[in-house]
Amino acid sequence: MASTYSSTLNLELQASGENSGTWGTITNNNLQKLESAVKGYVSVAIASTTDSLSATDGTTADETSNAIIKLTGTLTGNTTMQCEAVENWYIVDNAATMGTYTLGFKPAGGTATGLQAGSKHLLYTDGSTMFNVLDDMGDITANGTLNVGGNVEFDGGGFIFNQSSADVDFRIESNGADHMFFVDGGNDRIGINQASPSVTLDVVGAAKISGGVDLDGGAFTWNDSSANDLDFRCETATLANAFFIDGSADKIGFGMSAPTSAFVTIDQASSSAAIAVLTLDQGDADQEFIRFDGTTASDQSSSLTTDTSVGSLTGHIRVNINGTDFWIPYYATN
């Protein structure tokens, strides 16, 4: 009876009484093929877009029986490299120049797995599909530095950084900022575009918040560094400057962006709004509506005067008291 060959490693299975005088050579070939399957290495230059690893019965020259396959060459199109359609495992080092093309590795007639450029892959096949072991691994523990050159996707689970509460930092770098997002582990602070956050949340640059902001349990300070020219503006549905602080002029405006005539200026600019400029509602019945604190003089040189000989009656100001309109007279100065 003639020799046959194993389906996975193409080992020569010698029949009883065969190969007189050559059985030692054949046995040595088989042992070398077993050695290649455990730790063998071969470099294969990709020659076409549908290339195959060589598979030869009974010799040590076949490529497909090696454990480690290095793929080289330059792709000329989307390419598939295939091995025999039998159960096997491989470490594949993709050193091919891919350009914009793709490279797959599969069992003959089966389903391929994609290979990443410049990467090493741990693969196995059941004879019909090639599987990338790292595609769906379970728990992974890395005691050193983990460097990832491609995308990282978390789907279906949480992400916890620094579970043991060690004094370590977390940093995300953008195209132009080294510390676009930074967690200062030692000081329990977060910096946005800030490498040395001085408070719990330290933001350098503009911030836009589309949802609500709830300040509860702490004070709110605007322009704490007293920068010379920083304005503060609140906008309503129709007023661009419903409330405005002019940082350089140290003035406040309601309904205006350039308060100049007083420390506080209210501008009700609509001629058809049908509303008063200011409403005072005093709920404390035994207290005044307005309090004036100033310097009193006997003449009319100060903000308050005891002089009763003021100038002539000049006009009246319309006011509303408890729903009824009245006129308050005003007098010229002497």
Broad structural category = mainly beta
Helical run tally: 1
Rounded to the nearest angstrom, the radius of gyration is 42 Å
Reading side by side through the largest sheet, how are the strands ordered? Answer: 3-5-7-10-11
Which descriptor suits the 3D outline?
Answer: rod-shaped
Give the low-pLDDT segments. none
Features:
334 residues, mainly beta, 5-stranded mixed sheet, 4-stranded mixed sheet, 1 helix, rod-shaped
Word description of this protein:
With 334 residues, the protein is mainly beta. It has four domains: 133 residues, no CATH class; 34 residues, no CATH class; 53 residues, no CATH class; 56 residues, no CATH class. 5% of the residues lie in helices and 29% in strands. A five-stranded mixed beta sheet has the order 3-5-7-10-11. Strands 4-6-8-9 form a four-stranded mixed beta sheet, with no helix packed on it. The longest helix has 17 residues. The termini are far apart.
